[in-house]
Amino acid sequence: MKKSSQVRIVLTVYALLIVFNISGSVLAQRPNILFCLSDDQSYPHASAYGEPVIKTPVFDRIAKQGILFTQAYCAAPSCTPSRSAILTGQDIWRLGQGGQLFGTLPAEHAVYTEMLSKSGYHVGYSDKGWAPGRVNAGGRKSNPAGTKFKNFQEFFANAPNDKPWCFWFGSRDPHRGYKKGSGISSGMDPAKVRVPKIFPDTDEVRSDICDYFLEIQRFDSQVGEMLELIKQAGQIDNTLVVITSDNGMPFPRAKANLYDLGTRMPLAISWPKQISANRKVEDFVNLTDLAPTFLEAAGIKPPKEMTGRSLINLLKSKKSGIVEPRRDAVYTGRERHAWCRIDGKGYPARMIRTRDFLYIRNYEPDRMPAGIYQIKTNEGHYGDVDYSPTKEVMIADNSDDVLFKKAFGKRPHHELYDCKKDPYQLNNLASDPEYRSTLNELSKRLTKHLKATGDPRETTGKAPWDDWPYYGRSNWKILPVKSN
Q: Mind giving me the DSSP string for 344-380?
């Protein structure tokens, strides 16, 4: 090779290092990244959190080898926007059509997977990547999660020996549907299930929760198989492992809602080479923080448009409890979820969650939050709530009108909950004079964050989400609203 060619190669590599802010020492030590995402799993549904019926030994082991987070939240309680936010490291209201279910993620929004790939990572995914939605409508040629592989084994077999890798395992568990009674048939004791107070405590509900637990356990075992392969290859020490979920459990007043069962996520992170083991961290984190974390771990400076904040300093600390006091709140929102209202309009809302309180702002309180009532077998009625035995019990059971209205009835413009006294957020304190100053303070703080991060609902007052295409099923017949 001519000397001039060698010089050009050296200069090209040097230029790439400058572009991606990667030093030579970091380049040699960059970690592999295994990101494991369950589909519709709420906190605290892992045995590491003390849930008595479910058994998640792999999640528990990662938490023990690294950090168990107790205050992690998704950016939206809905699959597509949550995944858009994870990939871009941005709040959903900044992502255009990427901020709603069955939308698209415009190519103008950079994703961490592409940045890692350009910096030399072998990047791929299996099962559910960015979804559901239409990838090419946003100008992309492939799924934002990376190159698709049949499974991790195929991806790993194709990983070059001289490159770090980044893999997205997007499980479809515990998304519905379930085999009814499968949880109890597996040996789970329904009598030991902790039924959230937002559901009626019936045998059918307990069985439904066991079915949900069983699918979480299947996800856990699949992650275990991947970790064993990494361990056998001698790569586990320098692999950053993240296990979490995209949004809350597919039950009424959970998934697609801004209450804790819709937004609060299980999260365990390990990286044996860098993270002190057996720590429990109580800092508030958002899953938007993962993209800048992955980039910084790879020696790449996160782009300034990312609203998420890297967790690297928190991960490398040796402290437990509250590590960074400034992480004292998290912000989340939602726009259109399912097509379940006249003309496909959504139920826009934003929230701020602090250690003591949850404040929610509902922008269209005259709309039905769970969708309108439609008569259609197993789907379509209150369509923002997935079909389930629990849902059917709550609709059919007139004996507990309070829980029915909490799940399916209209909600006021402002909601305020004392999360320590009322962990399931059932008692709205927004109109209580005793909490007026708290309501005003949190409302101002939420508005400030939304304006600072460019939310159109607070900056221009415009709401484009209802007018954007919905690439899912939208041809349901609208029938009269059920009278209660």
A: G----EEEEEESSEEEEEES-TTS-TT------TTSS
pTM over the 0.90 mark: yes
Q: Are 360 and 258 in contact (CB under 8 A)?
A: yes
d(CA 461, CA 451): 11
CB 135 within 8 A of CB 104: yes
**What length does the chain have?**
484
Burial of 401 from C-beta contacts in 10 A (0-12 / 13-18 / 19+): exposed
Amino acid at 144: P
| DSSP conformational letter for 102 | T
Cα(108)–Cα(94) distance, rounded to whole angstroms? 11
CA distance 149 to 484: 49
> How high is the mean pLDDT in each 10-residue block of the chain (484 residues)?
42 41 53 98 98 98 98 98 98 97 97 98 98 97 97 97 97 97 98 97 97 98 98 97 98 98 98 97 98 98 97 96 98 95 91 98 96 61 92 79 92 98 98 98 98 96 90 59 38
What residues contact residue 440 under an 8 Å CB cut-off, 6+ apart?
none
Under DSSP, is residue 194 helix (H, G, I), strand (E, B) or coil? Answer: coil
Q: Do 242 and 36 form a contact (C-beta atoms < 8 A)?
A: yes
Task: Report the alpha-carbon distance of residue 367 to residue 238 in Å, rounded.
Answer: 49
Closest C-alpha to 374, from 346, 393, 395:
395
Pair of tokens at residue 86: 């994870």
In which residue are the tokens 């607070």 written? Answer: 458
